[in-house]
User: Fold these one by one.
Assistant:
Number 1:
Amino acid sequence: MDKKDYGSSNRRKFLIGAGSVAAGGSALLGTAATTTFNLNDRAVSADVVTDSSGAVALTDTDDSDIISLNAPNSNVADNELEIDFSEGTGASGVNIGSKVTIGDTNTPSNDPAFTITNQTTDVVDIELQFEAGGSYSAKGSGSTLQFHVRNDNKSAQETLIADDGLNANSTTSINFQTSDSEGLDDGDKLDVAIEVNADNGSSGTGENLSGDLNITATQSP
């Protein structure tokens, strides 16, 4: 595959993920996509828009029934990746008292749920930002949504956590930056594992982990 040369003389940003993570609906990662993790015994699903021809590619690397590309009989469009926690389980979603993981949350590069690959000819910085929705509500010691992200080439790993540390419309983010020697080199990738934990002491149906997940790649000068 040819690498994309976007010109290293200019600082450029590529928004490669924009979506929502909400209790009660479906979940999407990617441009114009939405991600939902339901904690109230309803369907839990996620969709990831893929773009193998773009500056940065999102790729499904999970071989379970939970993650599928262009899944038949699903609500996702072509070239979208569906993550459905109810698929193949006979259940309707993630119940209170349950913990669900996709990929290796300790070392995502061993078994990622999906990857973020730099297809440019230069180093890029990657930011993953979670923005809590207007109805966001999480209890202390309650349920959490986590994205475990690793740049194995740089031995760098960060975890993006949505929990009671957030309020409605607030944000939290993690970064893999060149200034910290964690930027994504030409052809390298970030490996991502996903964890929904509804088995904490105060986990309950009153929680709402709705929000937006944005993944932005910035090409440094």
Number 2:
Amino acid sequence: MVFLVTVTTYISHDIYFSTVFLVLLILMYVITYFLMKCHIFFLFEEYHKVPHALIKEKSTCISLFLRNINSF
């Protein structure tokens, strides 16, 4: 973490830019982790092969994720 801040600050010479970049990087990591946990990529690729109950379960996972984002 400190290494990333140091490197981005050295490259950009701007602490504000490096902080925003780091926050976006962490946010992308968290969202990707959550999407992989919910198997949403599998859902998009194999939509026609997945039973309806499983799709409903995955969409519940998506709605919980969106609800958590909106709570901030």
